[in-house]
Amino acid sequence: MTTATFARYRFTFGPWNISTGADPFGPPVRAELALAVKLREFKKAGFDGIQLHDDDVVPADWDSTRTAEGVKEVKKMLDDEELFVEFVAPRLWEEPRTIDGAFTSNRAEDRQYALDRSRRAIDIANQLGTRNLVLWLAREGTYIREAKDPIRAVGQIVDALDTLLEHDANIRLLGEMKPNEPMDQAYLPTVGHFIGLISRLRDPERVGVLVETAHSILAGLDPSDDLAYALWHQKLWGVHLNDQNGLKFDQDKTFGSVDLRRAFNIVWVLDRSGYGWSGECIGLDVKPMRTTRSSDQTRHLINSKALFLRLSEVVQQIDDKTIQKFRGDRDYEGLEMYILDKLLGR
Which of 56, 113, 116, 188 could form a disulfide with 193 if both were Cys (CB 3.0 to 4.6 A apart)? Predict the structure, then answer.
């Protein structure tokens, strides 16, 4: 297997993938690193691009002049490391004005804040050379169902998306769905929910999805099916690969570390669909363990990328005629052992 086999894949990361290890039960255990240091580390690890929140670039409270200057400085850092920007995402869920939701807040002034910040994120994305805006609808939901009108809430999300599409004729919106956390229950909890409303938007051609595999698992779904569903609709424009140990909090574990068979099927769908040939990225969204030493805090990303490529090798060793023979005979016991043997290197 030569490196040319993987030429179509471009791997991206988020600066949040190197963390201090703080969690709700304990303080930081590693020092925070400056963005410039993270960029150098990821470039050395063989990554091609970066995913960014708006406030990873510049603080959210900067005025337009200072914002433009700050974005220009970050763009130079990226150019110096030869890293491109895959997308920008407005970080709406950490702002006190969005505790009751951003686009679905019961307060009009909060909904306006969310729109204004999202439009600003679009402007930042343009300055950084990407046309992709990812919307993780983190707090678009409720803690108790009677708190909001669920029919009106869906309409508010549609209106917000239309407003962002109108703000910039070039921007593309990627919905990233998750069924719960930080809200108890989310509106539009799955990929299918979001794709279902795209046709009602003012410009459906500019709206797609980013599938995070852990989010699919939290919804009780197989990530490879969510990926396939989005691919059939030609709406899979981004992925966040990670792993998840059951239906609990969003763990963002190293890709393939929990369920290797599930990871194989994720790579199977992506690899055999031709994903990546049109510039789509393999994005990783994984966290280092709290016990990880500072000197090893990129290892989870390096391991995730390596495992994806190894599984891609396995996928490419699968013989299509053999698969079709098993399917035609409905010999699924034989098919399963064929796949397991491949995963065992036999």
Answer: 188
